[in-house]
Specification:
Number of helices: 6
Shape: globular
Order of helices and strands: HEEEHHEHEEHH
Number of strands: 6
Bound molecules: iron/sulfur cluster
Strand order of the largest sheet: 1-4
Length: 149
């Protein structure tokens, strides 16, 4: 979608667009959050697509992303405090489809990791393959700087 169309959608949902410098995502400024989000790309989430579809280890057979869930939640960005920064909205808009959200049929998520919401970054069914550093990184994203010493 065009930025202006997503902006209108957000207005209907009661979400305010704020300047990037004013936004905190789980307590972090936007660039710090994106750096952490990018680092999650190194994590082995132990997802199981051996039969063609996700085994949905702990979550039933539907997998963690559904077209409806993704489109209605704007990839779960709607959960982030009633505001979104303009830069994030501009960057995610071209990837967003009102029917399927950011989900590409048969391909998975269209969003680069640094533009995914905290919810999408931290959801997992298995931590068997994760290092302690991986788990700490996910907890820092999930709980914000309450995790810092
Ligand atoms: S996190 Fe769970 S539901 Fe999502 S793709 Fe991986 S195994 Fe499937
Ligand atoms: S990971 Fe991507 S496709 Fe899945 S719910 Fe989040 S934004 Fe949507």
């Amino acid at each position: 979608m065009e930025y202006e169309q997503v902006r209108e959608l957000l207005r209907k949902w009661g979400i305010t667009i704020v300047p990037k410098a004013a936004k905190r995502i789980r307590s972090y400024d936007v660039d710090t959050f994106r750096d952490m989000a990018k680092r999650t790309g190194q994590i082995d989430f132990d997802c199981d697509f051996s039969n063609g579809n996700c085994a949905g280890r702990a979550m039933g057979g539907n997998g963690c992303c559904t077209p409806d869930g993704c489109s209605l939640s704007l990839g779960y960005w709607r959960k982030e405090g009633g505001t979104l920064d303009e830069d994030t909205v501009r960057r995610i808009s071209p990837f967003y489809d009102p029917k399927t959200g950011f989900l590409e049929d048969g391909m998975g998520c269209r969003l680069p990791r640094e533009l995914m919401s905290p919810t999408c970054l931290v959801v997992h069914c298995s931590d068997l393959m994760m290092t302690d550093e991986d788990k700490i990184l996910l907890a820092k994203i999930r709980y914000g700087d309450r995790m810092s010493p």
